[in-house]
Amino acid sequence: MEEVPFKKQLAKDRKKSEVKAVDTTFKRASKHAPKEMSSKMPASKIKPIKFYRSDEDPESGKFVKKFKPKDPRFENYAGNFNQGLFEASYSFMDDYRSNELSELEKSLHDTAYSDQYDSLKKVYMKKKQEIQRFEDQNRENKLKRKFKKEEKEKVQKGKKPFFLKKGLIKMMAMKEKMEDLKVQGKYEDYIRKKRKREKTMQRSEAFALPSERRT
User: Fold this and answer.
1) What CA–CA distance (Å, rounded) separates 207 from 6?
2) Residue 85, SS3 per DSSP
């Protein structure tokens, strides 16, 4: 068998391994036909990226413990959450909110006839509702703590434990709120504003409902 020269064999191997360049020039079947281009494209030389699992080390390939960030506020060594202690520690925020509300009220009087009045009024009403919501929540929390303390003493004496429902707590808090308003002389104004809001809501709901279809 005749031996193939080394150079010729190398040239043949190179020719086989070479990737033919794709002709990207546009062609037409006729001058009136649209342009045509081959859909054949050379394969990309960039290797696909291998995605590793979150708990797998990409260098060694071994599984390692996944790191989880921790919040020290919710760890066991931080202790149990004490609502009363939290409210006492951050009681200065109530004074801060009241001062902020009084400053907004003063700004409303100063800008009564300016373009900023409407935007300031929205901020003022939002802040006022926020303060009212905090006061209602604090009142409910105080009632809960008071009831739990009294109930704990009764259970120690042999009474069967009783657990308050949320609806009953809200009812007790509302009753206490009404009594405070009567002492302050603001009960009548509160009832009048509440009725006005209810009428406005009923009117808006009536307009939102579809009218009765005539037959």
Assistant:
1) 95
2) helix
What is the C-alpha R_g of the chain? 39
200 vs 206: CA distance, rounded Å? 10
The number of folded domains in the chain is 2
Mark whether 118 and 147 lie in a shared domain.
Answer: yes
Each residue's pLDDT tens digit, 94-148: 888 889 989 988 888 888 778 888 888 888 889 988 988 888 888 888 888 888 8
Locate 127 and state its tokens. 């802040």
Q: Does residue 99 fall inside a structural domain?
A: yes
Range of the domain at 193: 169-199
Q: Tokens standing for 61?
A: 């390939």
pTM of the predicted model as reported, rounded to 2 decimal places: 0.51
Question: How many Cβ atoms from other residues are within 10 Å of residue 127's Cβ?
Answer: 17
